[in-house]
Each structure stands twice: as structure tokens, then as C-alpha cells.
Write a structure and sequence with these properties.
Number of helices of chain B: 5
Oligomer: heterotetramer
Shape of chain A: globular
Number of strands of chain B: 16
Distance between the termini of chain B: 28 Å
Distance between the termini of chain A: 21 Å
Structural class of chain B: alpha/beta
Number of strands of chain A: 14
Structural class of chain A: alpha/beta
Helix content of chain A: 25-40%
Largest sheet of chain B: 7 strands, antiparallel
Low-confidence stretches of chain A: 306-313
Helix content of chain B: 10-25%
Order of helices and strands of chain A: EEEEEEHEHEHEHEEEHEHEHH
Strand content of chain A: 15-25%
Mean pLDDT of chain B: 95
Mean pLDDT of chain A: 94
Largest sheet of chain A: 8 strands, parallel
Bound molecules: flavin-adenine dinucleotide, flavin mononucleotide, FE2/S2 (inorganic) cluster
Low-confidence stretches of chain B: none
Strand content of chain B: 25-35%
Strand order of the largest sheet of chain B: 4-3-7-1-2-6-5
Radius of gyration of chain A: 18 Å
Radius of gyration of chain B: 18 Å
């Protein structure tokens, strides 16, 4: 019996491990390394109505236990994603979560309407929090009313459940989460990247051509855990957690915090096999900790529970 | 096929000021298809986080050995330089597309131009061209005398001109100063971007292949960190990735 | 001629390096290691009206390239700080910046009034941003109007210039900075810690007894740099920068971003000699980068400047 | 005086399952004043960031050598265990106050009770007490047979009882099961907090010194990470710091 299967709105997952949006392209590159059907799901790269080139390079800079990126939503556009990328992915037995982005409300609505019709797209991830696009993106993710409204509009046209991706760059993450829950979101994904910057020692100027970028990787994990801990207690929709995950232990920590599934981003760059490795290691770790099923870990950081007799750790 | 392998270090030595030659035992050597491909090296668990792209400078498929030459610069290469024989290093590779040797025939002349830390990948290229019967000429540019390496090795394959910016060794000046007096059928080059730009401008009429550098995330084409624009692109959205389409491009293929 | 002397409101600094509040106690421990007169200034631990024990232990937890702390403003109280700690520090030729904290406005005012009278206190640092105290502290630091009002009240009673310490846990740091500038702040110090959490693998519960804690160390540096970059362009009061500094290069990066002096926090725990080491290394680094004086680095990330002929790097 | 020193590793061996004995050459040995003091070890630049507190298990002032015994557990100790002879490790120490040997006289009997990784600091204490003419009895508790270490070493100084929780070696049970049948004038102990609590409750009438553990930041008294409350403190604000006031406290001095 599987210890890892999880059901979430729109998603029947073999296991709760999926690559995070923007860190896995549309899967083609990583299909060289392993069978993508091993994954719980795949969050594909942000898709916009028109193709985008994104920001000038350099687009990445390293930081202590983290990295900054300012890719700028480069993607081949809705038509190509629907016509080529998603059909290619349909050869694998793995549900797709389509990351939807745009500059204005109508963009989001247009992408959501079309992409949610594609058979292997089982859910949408509304990217209202990308810190690397100039107009739009970030503002949607920091004003509760605006986020709620956008969620509502997208829900109206979407054929599949809608998850909203929250930005950590806010004073009050709970307020944002509640707003999009009110807007009809079926789930949350969090966290997107923290806005950061690095300067070049010689020139004094930002290393990234876009100046600021999004901080990801192990450095941000404590912020992600804290936010999921707070939000999971305040809303009743499930959370797909992310931010610095690189091991099976990290996955358990996110479940403890309150996540019901997780996404792995930056760690794919460091180790292309990280997702299947984690999936392989989780059952033994659950055994060691005394859990029969990963769902027992969910929310343990704040849920009351008696002394479990089956807790063997 | 790209492999991820823990490779044993069988040699590490400083061959010039802050320039190290690292030799490893690696099964992934069998997957190398061309000189000019690179590997992606992980030097720590979380800090530094990202892998470091380093060119393959030479390899021996039978002995399953691979050499790299790198400059100790920042965090990652400093840690790498501290590793000693017997230790294991996590390598992802071979990555990318290298220098096409089928573009030149036996009897023709190839000019190989390298700048600083762009010199290493040219060494395997030089060996393979010579083995093929191509006449090879090298122009190698360095900052200063203490940074010069592999002159003897290149000399064994063909005529070799060394330049230093400060004139402390070889010819004083830039590689382009030497190049203008040389005759050749094909030009392969690797080095700092300003050098590549200068060469592309002057030799756009020649058969020219350039190896580019860009900051990388994944190294395998997934993260879009390393894209370059294509010239004459009306749509403004077409691109090539240095990691998986390059690092070697034909002149004109991408905007340098 | 010194390359490092800096003048800021109330502060004539031999050099712009000072230990950050809470990371150096009241100096006694580090006086075992070196002569405190070497330092540019000292930011002493937060002082409240009454003595405080702070939070239960565990109070620290490690994270990737960072640490979480939830000390909870433990301090011996105003009377003892004024009567014992500051007089002890007066044996050293080093200006003190007194970190002022409290739960309600009156607390801050009371501490500021008394402590600003002590001769070796040359400036106050208003700690409106400590994430580890339950009532007060954090709220002051996240609502612009409240922060402005508090700044104003403290300015009224203070005999020395007032710097306000900003919290990074806000959507809009520029808005906060402008508010306290409007409130009369003479300078800013930033950033305080990011709110984070770590969970124990075995119990599933937070490692810190206080549950959440403040994230500091190299992990947060990119966030600090970004915020100082933004704020220094928007205000006309100086910034003392902090957040993950552990080397002379880091100091220069903070100056490039827009800081006019810096504080070193967590790094003192890792290396008790970090401050004097940085002070010793800075002149040679400035030489290598081609600067005659550290002030030339200030704001280079965003200031327009011609090709400097003296830039030798 | 506390020193910060780069110390050369002159020995590292696994003496039980995941238990390592590390020997270093260190000038700071001359500053050690008591058994039970500890050092703070830095194992990486930024990750892990904080130093690790490890007790000094024995030292030799003349040879300037110091031994530590630690369990490979998390990030830091795992990296430490990978270090080999000849490498250097950054040590801050000696730190804190250890076990007072002047509290017992020649001819009297001292009982030393250690649990798991609390055993190491008792070894130097045992040596010094024996040298002083004190009769020393040891009770050493471990989880299981494979975790037992230093039994022979302790035996050389006096009677030694080993217990394991699972009974796979020595007596089955806890150290307290053995202790109740022993006579002594002074009790020194180091181990997990539940063990210390149990001992303090049962032996509060005895002369008792306990070595505590707490998560640390600075290790020198500056950060207030490691405070314990004092019992019978009406003000509620008085405290002791484990790092600089401890780690060894007299029973009753702090709230465990
Ligand atoms: C395809 C390719 C092949 C290369 N081959 C070689 C080689 O054979 N020998 C050699 O010495 N160097 C080579 N480089 C450059 C080498 O990757 C960088 O010098 C190295 O990554 C610097 O790492 P660091 O830890 O020393 O510096 P840090 O400053 O700590 O690096 C910080 C980050 O910036 C990146 N970075 C810094 N400089 C460069 C650069 N020039 N190019 C790409 N990324 C950079 C690092 O990878 C890292 O992510 C190559 C680069 C590429 C893209
Ligand atoms: C005064 C003192 C003396 C000690 N002496 C010894 C000894 O002789 N041998 C030995 O094996 N262990 C000893 N310990 C415990 C040892 O410090 C921890 O096992 C070690 O820090 C764990 O680090 P890690 O990297 O393996 O674990 P991680 O889980 O990576 O540690 C994460 C963080 O928690 C801290 N931490 C984790 N466990 C403990 C603990 N039990 N006590 C204090 N901090 C902890 C670490 O220092 C680090 O900051 C001592 C602790 C103290 C306070
Ligand atoms: C290079 C890169 C590109 C990203 N692109 C996107 C994107 O297109 N859409 C999105 O919602 N998030 C994007 N993200 C954010 C990640 O999905 C994820 O939320 C974040 O990186 C935190 O997870 P990690 O620490 O595991 O990487 C990107 C992250 C990185 C590093
Ligand atoms: C253990 C600890 C205690 C702190 N206590 C205080 C405090 O009392 N008052 C305050 O304003 N900031 C306090 N801080 C925040 C620091 O002054 C500093 O703003 C922050 O740690 C970022 O700098 P760093 O990364 O160099 O540590 C504390 C930080 C730490 C790690
Ligand atoms: S480095 Fe990721 S696409 Fe090239
Ligand atoms: S560890 Fe910092 S005061 Fe004890």
C-alpha cells in the first residue's frame, strides 16, 4: 500500500512531490534523466498569452545557500504551450499544473480559459507573485482585494481547480491567503521567491540585468515554513508548499508546517535526480518517524494530538 | 546521455598562478562527443549552492580520465582547489555542444584562438584536429607571464603564439594583433566576451566557431538562465541556450 | 589619512563598522578578545524600562547559511543599563548607539528620555521591528502611521539623534522608511530579522520555544541589499546597513547599495574577531577597488557617475 | 583567556557506532583550567553557520594536545567526521566552567555518572580525581552495545558500571538503577536532560554537580541564547548562561 498518495482538488497524486514552476521547463530536459511518470505532478513554466523573451542576462546570481533569478517569464506563449508542450507531456502518466501569468487581468483570464481545457492539465496555478515582471505580476500578489478579484475572474473561466501562488513579500500573508480563498481559490501554492539583490564588487552595480531578482533555495526555507504554518491554520483550502526543499526531511518539515503536497524548485538545478530521489527515500523516512502515511504529518506543528502509540522515532 | 557521477580525483596541481589542472576518473567520459563540451561541478551541499560550469580540456576514453583547467576565483573554485587526490567530486556531464571538427578537412589549416581561461577547451580540439591531419595554429592570450599555461602542450600540436597584455611574456598585446598576419581556413575561439566580439567583427567572412560563457542555473536547458538573442530576429523572442544549444555557436547564430 | 572615518548625525566614527544590537551584549564578553575602542561604534542590546527575562529556551535554531533567534529582548532594564553597563563602556573611546524597545509608546519614550542623557550614548536606535516580542514591537514596525507617530514622540524627548530600525517583514519598505523620515528620524538602521521557523523532525513541533524567530546571517543578505538599494534612493537620511555581513567585501556591497555605515550581527558569534578583522582589511580592499575613501562607495549601485580614472580594479 | 585557533588534526577515529574521537594539536590547551570545559568548533564557512559546542574529553598540556569525543548526528558533526589527519579546524576555547575537583578530598569517593554523549568530559575529570587520590566510581549509560565507548579507559581509573537501555551490553536499564546501591561523597554527572533531572531529584541531599546542554549562539555569553532560570527567583528575571556561567552547575543553582 502506498504511503504517499494524496488527493487534492483536481489532483490524484501518486505522491505529493512535484517540480516547481520555472524550475523544470516543460519537462523535456529532465525526461533525459528519468521517467516523468514517477512524479506526483508537474508544475510547468509560467505561460502568457504571447511568447516572451524575458529579461536580459545575467539572469541568475548566487547567494549564500540560495540563488537570485530574474528570468522574466520567458515562455513560448499560450498557443505553443497548448499545441506542442502539453501534448508532448501527455505521453507521461502525470497530471500537469499549469502556471498562468500575465500583465493585466484579461491576460490571466485568456490563458486560464484555454489552458484549463487541455486534458492533461488538472489544475491551474495562478502566478500573481512573480517578482521579475515590471507591470503586473507583483502588484496582484500584494493587494488582497486585487488578488481576490483576479482569483474570482479566473475561477469563472477555468475548467479545472485553481491554486493561487502567494508572494512572501508581504506584511501579512494570512490576509492575502484569506482574500484569495474568499475569491474562490481551490488551493494555495507558496512561497514564490523573496525579492533580493546582489551587487558586483568591481562595478558596484547589480549583477542581474533586471537589478532585483527572486531569492530561492535553502536560504528561504525558514520563511516558507513560517508562512505555511500561519496560513494553514487560517484557511481551509490545501497548500502546496515550496521554498528551499532539497531532501525527504525537508518534505516532512513542510507537511508538519501544514502543506498537503510540495514542490521542489531550485534543487533540480543542483541535482537533476532530486525529485525521484526524494520520492524513493520518503517511505523509509516515514517508517523511521513512525508514520503509516505521509498525510499523518500534515499540520503536526500546530495540530493537537495525543501521544501516538505508532510513533516509533 | 548526460550522467551524474561521483568521480574520484586522481590529480590536482597548480599549473600557473591560481590556475589548476584537475584530473578525474569518470565513466561519463564515454559520453563525450566533441571537444568543447563542459561539465557542471558541485562543490558543496548548500553553500555555494549552484554547480560550476567548467570545460573539458582533454579526455582519454580508454583510461576513463578527464582533465579540466580552471582559475581559482570565487567561492566555488576556491573550494574546488582545496580538494585533493582521493576525494570525490559530483559531476554532471558531458553538457552542451562543442567544436565541430567535421567542418575542416585534412590538409587545411585551423586557427585556434584562446583567451585566458578560454584556452583549456581548445587543447582537446587541437589534439583531435592534428590527429585528423589538419594543420593547427594556436594564438593564446594571457594577462601576464604568471598566468601562462600549456604552452608546451600546444606546441606539440602546432605553431603557438603566446601574447600577454602587459608584455611580460611572448608578444605584448591582444590575440587579434597576432591573428591579422595569419592564414587559415577555419577559426575556433574561446575566451572573454570582448575578445569574441572583436573576433566576430573582423572575421565574419570566415568559417568561425565561438564558445560563449553565460551565468548558468541548471546547465541542462531547463531554467532559461543562459539564453542569448538571435540576430535578425523580428519576433524578438527567439533564442538559444548557451548550456544546451551551445556553448559553441557558429558565428552569426547568436547575438554576442 | 584615514580611509574609513564617517560622520553621521550624532556620530563621529573612526570607521563605519559596529556590532549590531543583540549580537554583542553590552560589550563585556567581546572585550576579552580585543580593545573595544577599535570599533566605529557599538549598538548595545535592546533596553526596556523594566528588566526582562525574555523567551523560554531553545532560543536559537540554525538554518542554511543563517540562524533563527527568539531571545525576546532579555535585558537588565533601564536602571541597570544606565547605572552599570553604560558607565562600564565609557572606559572605551567608542560612541554608543542605544537600542530602545518597549511594548507601548510610553515605554519607548521613557527609555529614550533617560538613556539619551548618558554621555557616551551618541544616538538612539528605535527598535520598532523586533519580531520576537508578543505585544508591541512588531506592529510598530509594519504600520507606517504608527511608526511615524512613535518616531515623533521619541524625537521630542531625546537628547541625541534618533535612528529607526526597520523591519524587512513588510510589503513596502520604502513607505515605512518615508514615514519615519517624516516623523523626524535622523537616520535608519536596516534590516532587522525576517520572521522564520524551523520544525523538529522527531516531534513535528517548532524548535524554538517561541515558535517563530528572526532569521539573520548570510542567508538574508540579498534581501537587505535590495531593501537598502530601494530605501536609500527614496529618503535623504543616512542608513546604517546590516543583515548577513561577515567580510570586508560584504561591507562594500552594503555601501554600494546605499548604506553609510554598517553593523555586524550574527557573524560575531561565528568569529569573535570579525569586527576588528573587517576594519583591518578594509583599507587594502578599498585600494584594490580603486577608492581613496570608503564614502566613495556609497550608493554606487544607483548613482550616476562618469568613468572614474582612479578606479583601478 | 579564550583563544581562537586554527588547530591541526592529528587523529580522528571512529571508536563506536557513529562516535568519533578527534585529537588536535592546540596551543589553547594551556588555557584549560578544569575538566568539563568545552570548545566551540567551526566546521564550514556559512553552512552550517554556527559553531558546535563539544566538551574537552582529555588534554595534555605538555604535548599541547586535546581530545574530543562526539557523535556524528546532524550537518555539523557529519562534516567534522569527514575531516582527516593533517587538516585544520577552527576552534574557539576553552569555554565555560567545568567540574570543581577541589570540592572533594583525597580518600573520599566520587561517583561519576555519564549518559551517552555526556560521558566524554567525565574522562578527564576521572583522571584528575584519581591523580588527586580520590576513589572514583563510574556509571556509564548507553543506548545499546554498539554505542559503548571508553569502558577500558575508565576502568583504569576505578570501578566502572556500564548500562544499556536495551540490555545488549552490561546492565540493562538506566544509570539510576545502578546508582541506588552505591556509596559516595560527591556526585558529578553529564548527560541528557531527563537523566540530569532524575538525578537531581533523587540526590539533592548530596554534593552534586551537573553539566547542562543548551542550544548556543555565541558560546561566550553575549547572545543570551543559552540562559536557564534560577530556582526560587521572585523577580523572574535572574538567570545563568550555560556557556559562560556553566556548563557545570551545582545542584540547585539553576532550574533544569
Ligand atoms: C560553458 C562554460 C565553460 C567554462 N569553462 C571554464 C574553464 O574551463 N575554466 C575556468 O576556469 N572557467 C570556466 N568557466 C567559467 C567558470 O564557470 C567560472 O569561473 C566559475 O563558475 C566561477 O565560479 P566561482 O565559484 O569561482 O566564482 P563565484 O563568483 O563564487 O561564482 C558565483 C556564481 O557566478 C557564476 N559565474 C561566475 N563567473 C562566471 C563565468 N565567467 N561564467 C559563468 N558563470 C560564472 C558561478 O558559476 C556561480 O554561479 C566556464 C564557464 C562556462 C559557462
Ligand atoms: C556544553 C556542551 C558540550 C557538549 N559536548 C558534547 C560532546 O562532548 N560530544 C558530543 O557528541 N556532543 C556534545 N554536545 C552536543 C553537541 O553540541 C551537539 O550534538 C551538536 O552541536 C550537534 O550538531 P550537529 O551539527 O550534529 O546537529 P544539527 O542538528 O545540525 O545542529 C543544529 C544546531 O543545533 C545545535 N544542537 C543540536 N543538538 C544540540 C545539543 N544536544 N546541544 C546543544 N546544541 C545542539 C547545534 O549546535 C546547531 O547549532 C555538547 C553540547 C553542549 C552545549
Ligand atoms: C529560475 C527560476 C524560475 C522560476 N520561474 C517561475 C515561474 O515561471 N512561475 C512561478 O510561479 N514561479 C517561478 N519560480 C519560483 C519557484 O516556482 C518557487 O516558487 C521558488 O523558487 C521557491 O522554491 P525553491 O526554493 O525550491 O526554488 C522560479 C524559480 C526559479 C529559481
Ligand atoms: C541573537 C540575536 C539577538 C538580537 N537582538 C536584537 C535586539 O535586541 N535589538 C535589535 O534591534 N536587533 C536585534 N537583533 C537583530 C540584529 O541586530 C540584526 O539586525 C540582524 O541580526 C541582522 O544582522 P546579521 O545578519 O548581521 O545578524 C538580534 C539578532 C540576533 C541574531
Ligand atoms: S543554465 Fe539553465 S537553461 Fe541554460
Ligand atoms: S551561547 Fe550566547 S550567551 Fe550562551
Amino acid at each position: 500500500m502506498s504511503k504517499l498518495n494524496i488527493e487534492l482538488p483536481g489532483l490524484k497524486l501518486k505522491n505529493p512531490i512535484m517540480p516547481a514552476s520555472g524550475c523544470f521547463g516543460f519537462g523535456r530536459e529532465y525526461s533525459q534523466f528519468y521517467d516523468l511518470s514517477l512524479l506526483g505532478a508537474i508544475m510547468i513554466k509560467a505561460t502568457t498569452v504571447e511568447p516572451r523573451f524575458g529579461n536580459p542576462t545575467p539572469r541568475v546570481a548566487e547567494t549564500a545557500a540560495g540563488m537570485l533569478n530574474a528570468i522574466g517569464l520567458q515562455n513560448p506563449g499560450l498557443e505553443k504551450v497548448v499545441g506542442e508542450e502539453l501534448p508532448w507531456l501527455s505521453q507521461y502518466d502525470v497530471p500537469i499544473i499549469a502556471n498562468v501569468a500575465g500583465s493585466v487581468e484579461e491576460d490571466y483570464v485568456a490563458v486560464a480559459r484555454e489552458i484549463s481545457k487541455v486534458p492533461n492539465v488538472h489544475a491551474l496555478e495562478l502566478n500573481i507573485s512573480c517578482p521579475n515582471v515590471k507591470h503586473g505580476g507583483i502588484t496582484f500578489g500584494t493587494i488582497p482585494e486585487v488578488a481576490k478579484q483576479l482569483t474570482w475572474k479566473v475561477k469563472e473561466v477555468s475548467d479545472v481547480p485553481v491554486y493561487v501562488k502567494l508572494s512572501p513579500n508581504v506584511t501579512n500573508i494570512v490576509e492575502m491567503a484569506k482574500a484569495v480563498e474568499d475569491g474562490g481559490a481551490d488551493g494555495l501554492t507558496m512561497i514564490n521567491t523573496l525579492v533580493g539583490m546582489r551587487l558586483d564588487m568591481k562595478t558596484g552595480k547589480p549583477i542581474l540585468a533586471n537589478r532585483t531578482g527572486g531569492l530561492s533555495g535553502p536560504a528561504v526555507k525558514p520563511v516558507a515554513i513560517r508562512m505555511i504554518y500561519e496560513v494553514s491554520q487560517a484557511v481551509s483550502i490545501p497548500i502546496i508548499g515550496m521554498g528551499g526543499i532539497s531532501s525527504a526531511e525537508d518534505v516532512i518539515e513542510f507537511f508538519y508546517a501544514g502543506a498537503s503536497a510540495v514542490a521542489v524548485g531550485t534543487a533540480n538545478f543542483v541535482d537533476p535526480f532530486v525529485c525521484p530521489d526524494i520520492i524513493e527515500k520518503l517511505p523509509a523516512l516515514l517508517d523511521r518517524l513512525g508514520f503509516e502515511h505521509i498525510s499523518e504529518c500534515q499540520g503536526r506543528s500546530w495540530k493537537e494530538h495525543g501521544q501516538r502509540t505508532y510513533h516509533r522515532a | 546521455m548526460i550522467q551524474k557521477e561521483l568521480c574520484r580525483i586522481i590529480g590536482q596541481r597548480e599549473i600557473a598562478a591560481d590556475i589548476y589542472e584537475l584530473t578525474i576518473k569518470a565513466n561519463l567520459v564515454k559520453e563525450i562527443s566533441e571537444p568543447g563540451q563542459f561539465v557542471h561541478i558541485r562543490v558543496a551541499k548548500h553553500d555555494p549552492l549552484l554547480r560550476r560550469p567548467i570545460s573539458i580540456s582533454s579526455y582519454d576514453k580508454e583510461a576513463r580520465q578527464l582533465k579540466m583547467i580552471y582559475r581559482k576565483e570565487g567561492k566555488g573554485t576556491t573550494l574546488l582547489a582545496e580538494m585533493v587526490e582521493g576525494m570525490e567530486v559530483d559531476i554532471l556531464g558531458p553538457l552542451g555542444n562543442g567544436f565541430p571538427i567535421e567542418e575542416v578537412s585534412a590538409g587545411e589549416t585551423a586557427l585556434l584562438v584562446g583567451g585566458g581561461i578560454g584556452v583549456p577547451p581548445l587543447y582537446e580540439l587541437s589534439k583531435q584536429l592534428k590527429a585528423k591531419g589538419v594543420k593547427v595554429i594556436h594564438v593564446l592570450g594571457f594577462q601576464t607571464k604568471s598566468a601562462v599555461f600549456y604552452e608546451q602542450e600546444f606546441l606539440q600540436n602546432g605553431e603557438t603564439f603566446v601574447t600577454t597584455v602587459d608584455g611580460s611574456y611572448g608578444f605584448k598585446g591582444f590575440v587579434t594583433d597576432i591573428m591579422k598576419d595569419l592564414q587559415f581556413d577555419i577559426l575556433y575561439t574561446c575566451g572573454p566576451t570582448p575578445m569574441l566580439r572583436a573576433i566576430e567583427q573582423k572575421y565574419s567572412n570566415k568559417k568561425l566557431f565561438l564558445s560563449l560563457e553565460e551565468r548558468m542555473g541548471c546547465g541542462v536547458g531547463a531554467c532559461f538562465a543562459c539564453v542569448c538573442k538571435r540576430p535578425n530576429d523580428l519576433s524578438g523572442v527567439s533564442y538559444k541556450k548557451v548550456c544546451s544549444d551551445g556553448p559553441v555557436f557558429r558565428a552569426g547564430e547568436v547575438f554576442i
